[in-house]
Design goal:
With about 450 residues, this protein is an all-alpha fold. It has 23 helices and no strands.
């Protein structure tokens, strides 16, 4: 008996009637049965898990708990033994990659609390507004600067500043909301304190600097698209500064307020120090210089480090672990290869869908990256595909009606959702199209170092 006959006979479950059909020449039925068993049933299982995750998120279950339940459900569907499921769940929680990521996210959260406590964020924005006189530049820079500090609903910090500047120019609520929402996020592709790029680097197991370098074109595209589609909505005028401080004083205030963030970035990206230690050193030094007392620091930690943040990281890493050990991670690429479907299409659609449904960057990365891992990292990381996946997911997040920044911004400015979408859909389409064109042209064209 030839190998292919053995394979088909095995795929038919050794059922004499079905194998007889094949022997009698009815190859089409048995081959279809073979393909269905080998490819479609595992795909259906993954789709069921995907729908399960979406339902939980729609029910307002925290993303971390959602991914934990999704991992358990996935393991059960793929017949992972209970002890094996439990063991890998525990291993995922204590692996150094998980702990490293968890400590980094906690430090970023604490840093944000310290910056707010010392009023450094207020000083950053005040000094910037006094340094820059172009209304359009101010409208873009204020949310962009607030955006370097990752925090849920961070657009609400810049919204009052945008309101003050925009109201003097009689800008519509939708224009103010669109500036605040769009430019708030232009650094998410490249700024090393963002959870999204940190988690992506951990899942793909590559240095953070390589992820950032590969995604620089996307931040530049977001900036260019924002300028092209939003700046022209605002008439160019010069602002007279109301500050009594001169340029040097404002510049010194700006540097005095932002040096802690810059120190962490420089230590990590240019000195090669691990982001964990760079952040720890920066937080400690910034707190000492600004005379933050230990009691105040403990209060900041209690208020900012929540169980939800811890569970988010654990849930992502557990889901990644289970999808690998169950074999589910190889199902999608095998099926696409069998049916001749372009991986580019799936790399676009899966993150885009998750991003639009959840409105959370960490959710689309935590859910879609492990599923797409065989595409993103076939034999070494494909940085073009990784950039495309991030751009697709982020486009979905930017347009998601459940994106916290978008919802809060819309409510703050009392703007119309439909009118906001008319302003942000065109630059979002440009972002997605540019990423796709770059990948089709073979990006990156050189080695990412």
């Amino acid at each position: 008996m030839t190998p292919i006959i053995r394979q088909i006979r095995h795929s038919c479950g050794y059922e004499p009637a079905r194998f007889a059909l094949w022997l009698q020449g009815n190859r089409q039925e048995c081959l279809f049965y073979h393909l269905f068993l080998k490819y479609m049933i595992p795909i259906l299982k993954i789709l069921i898990v995907f729908v399960f995750l979406v339902i939980l998120i729609k029910k307002k279950v925290q993303v971390g708990y959602t991914l934990l339940l999704g991992a358990i459900f996935l393991g059960i569907l793929f017949s992972l033994p209970l002890l094996e499921l439990l063991k890998n769940t525990l291993v995922a929680c204590v692996e150094w990659d998980t702990l490293h990521l968890l400590f980094i996210v906690i430090l970023v959260t604490i840093f944000g609390g310290v910056l707010k406590f010392t009023q450094s964020l207020r000083d950053i924005t005040d000094s910037l507004e006094n340094l820059v006189k172009d209304t359009r530049t101010i409208l873009a820079l204020l949310p962009a600067l607030i955006g370097i500090l990752p925090m849920p609903g961070g657009a609400m910090m810049s919204a009052p500043m945008i309101e003050e500047v925009g109201s003097r120019k009689n800008l519509s609520p939708e224009i103010k909301a669109s500036f605040n929402h769009w430019f708030r996020h232009i650094m998410e592709f490249v700024f090393p304190l963002y959870q999204g790029v940190i988690i992506a680097s951990v899942i793909l197991q590559v240095p953070l600097s390589k992820i950032i370098l590969a995604q620089v074109p996307m931040s530049l595209t977001m900036l260019g698209a924002g300028i092209f589609f939003l700046w022209r909505k605002v008439k160019l005028e010069k602002e007279e500064s109301m500050s009594q401080k001169n340029t040097v004083e404002n510049l010194l205030l700006f540097l005095k307020s932002i040096w802690g963030i810059l120190l962490a970035v420089v230590l990590n990206l240019f000195s090669g120090i691990d982001l964990l230690w760079a952040l720890l050193l920066s937080v400690v030094l910034f707190a000492i210089v600004n005379m933050v007392r230990p009691a105040s620091l403990l209060k900041i930690i209690r208020e900012n480090v929540t169980l939800e943040i811890i569970m988010l990281i654990l849930g992502i890493m557990i889901f990644k672990k289970i999808i690998e050990v169950s074999g589910a991670v190889t199902v999608i690429p095998q099926t696409l290869s069998a049916w001749g479907i372009s991986p580019v299409l799936v790399i676009c659609l899966v993150p885009l869908t998750v991003g639009a449904l959840t409105g959370v960057t960490t959710a689309f990365i935590g859910i879609s990256y492990p599923i797409l891992l065989s595409f993103l990292k076939p034999n070494g990381v494909n940085y073009g595909y990784a950039m495309l996946a991030y751009a697709a997911g982020f486009t979905g997040v930017m347009l998601s009606p459940v994106h916290l920044c978008l919802v809060l911004t819309k409510d703050y400015f009392k703007a119309s959702f439909s009118k906001i979408y008319r302003l942000i859909i065109p630059p979002s389409v440009v972002l997605m199209v540019v990423a796709l064109i770059l990948v089709l042209l073979g990006y990156p064209w050189g080695k990412i170092n």
